Amino acid sequence: MLSSNRVRRATLKARARTTRAAARIRRRGNGALATHCLAAGLAPRQARSVAGSLRKTAVKLGVTGISARIHAGRRMRGDCRRYTVADVARIAGAYRPRKPLYKLAAARLALAA
């Protein structure tokens, strides 16, 4: 595969992932913290990292979210917490990341509300 095609496909894949996550949040009205991070444009690995930090910040602020179950095909994968856009904006306002990419994502999360 040509490197230019590889770059194009990666860009398209990232854009589709971001759009899908944002649509899911818009449709449901809430989403897991990692979903909000994906909608802010982070890659899955970075989204998991930021979501963990946001979870710690949410505990400090006392933001609990909504308890939910995750379905993975026919079986239940486990429990999770889903947060509204306003909750995520509040958490992102108190979140103080160090990496420039994470700072940008925190700003996007805060502005999403």
Task: Outline the structure in words.
With 113 residues, the protein is α+β, with helices and mostly antiparallel strands. The chain has one domain. The protein is built from five helices and three strands, in the order H-E-H-H-E-E-H-H. The chain has helices spanning 3-28, 33-39, 44-61, 85-94, 100-111; strands spanning 30-31, 66-72, 75-84. Strands 1-3-2 form a three-stranded antiparallel sheet. Strand 2 (66-72) and strand 3 form a beta hairpin. Helix 1 crosses helix 2 (33-39), helix 2 (33-39) packs across helix 3 and helix 4 packs across helix 5 (100-111). The longest helix has 26 residues, at 3-28. The radius of gyration is 15 Å and the shape is globular. It starts with a helix and ends with a helix. The relative contact order is 0.15.
| Number of E-type strands | 3
Taking the sheet with the most strands, its summary is: 3 strands, antiparallel
Uncertain stretches of 5 or more adjacent residues = none
In DSSP terms, counting alpha (H) and pi (I) runs of 4 or more, how many helices?
A: 5
Number of domains as seen in the coordinates: 1
Placed side by side, the strands forming the largest sheet appear as 1-3-2
Overall helicity: 55-70%
Strand content: 15-25%
| Head-to-tail CA distance between termini | 41 Å
SSE string, helix = H, strand = E? HEHHEEHH
Mean pLDDT: 93
Helix/strand-derived class? alpha+beta
Which word captures the global form?
Answer: globular
Q: Report the C-alpha radius of gyration, rounded.
A: 15 Å
Task: Explain briefly what this protein structure is.
The chain has about 110 residues and is an alpha+beta fold.
